[in-house]
Design a protein that fits this description.
With 435 residues, this protein is an alpha/beta fold. Helices cover 39% and strands 12% of the residues.
Amino acid sequence: MESVRTVVRLVMNTSPLSSHPPGMSSALSCPTDAAASSWIPYGRQHITPEDVQAVTAVLQSDWLTQGPAVEQFEKAVAEYCGARFAVAVSSATAGLHLACMALDLTEEDWLWTTPNTFVASANCGRYCGAQVDFVDIDPRTYTMDANLLAAKLAWAATQGRLPKVVVPVDFAGQPADWESLHALSHQYGFHLIEDAAHAIGAQYHGKPVGCGQWAEMTVFSFHPVKIMTTGEGGMVLTNRRDLYERLLRLRTHGITRDTLRMYEDPDGPWYYEQLSLGYNYRMTDIQAALGCSQLQRLDALVQRRGELAQRYNQALASLPLTGPWQRPESQSQSAWHLYVVRLHLETIGIAKRVLVERLKAAGIGTQVHYIPVHTHPYYRQFGFNWGDFPESERYYREALSLPLYVGLSDAQQDFVIETLRACLQPTQLKAAPES
């Protein structure tokens, strides 16, 4: 009981906006070195000696980039997901951009995505000059609402402004309603790019996300807070050879060394031709080696995240918040990238910012995923504003991501739960009897 009273004193007697425990910086989730060992972030990478050994082997090899490790990683991910082709890239943002380019998205076209995502899901369209619009989220899954998409498509068809590309997001690790989205893509003739930055290791209708059954391309992220990591990095999966070949070329400046695609006869073995405007979006062999190592335990990483999520589900059930809703396992299985709760703000009687600062004062990092994309100043210049997508905006006001990562111990998670309970139900805990 003493630990509970200590937490109560800490979270209730700390200034919500400026005070920090010793060694804690004022940044929202950046402790100083002195406090780093006790700081519980919302997410972090999980690195093993085997990962270090794999990276070291590449560092001691002849190839640091453009070598065999990248192709090995691509083949391994494609095999895991059941896709024909995979293209490793420098980030998921780069992957989304290349996917749009591979589909010839231009300034004449529209790309639609969801407001509840990181800005890259929309920016990939802007990189190509396309106009961007949004479809609000399902209030349970926080992914694109297929019913709202259907209604918007019906309206857009009458206005002659149907999207060329739609980018649904597998939010927090849970796949979107791909069966419905796929049917709509056939009905209205648009391309589907699956933003699965949160969802490697997830399943939909018994098949791995990335298998290519529902979307023409799937994009993964390997950022350190994601399910598995390459430091920075991403990958695009597809079952279409034409898209695969375009992705490969665009990833490397638009250059080809394939003599069958050249306009001139080669001058020699050094010869190459730039066929289109591309980018340097390559992944290094160092990153790929780490990815290959991490992929070998991906199932275990997802399993541990699921176990932590279930512990949260049980422990938080009585608190004034709503936990994440999941489809039945027969329909989909989340990769549990995030554990997002929706706070009952009127019940708890404190602002979300105050709660975040109190948790930070106790050494617990949280995050908000996401600020609705249409509310950012860049997108407001195109006419978007608060009120346009009410479900995403309501979600944003209430949402908070709690710590969830493989290295989070049961004891650390119990501390998060105990501290959150103290913040949300301080009166009840203060009155707890002596043990």
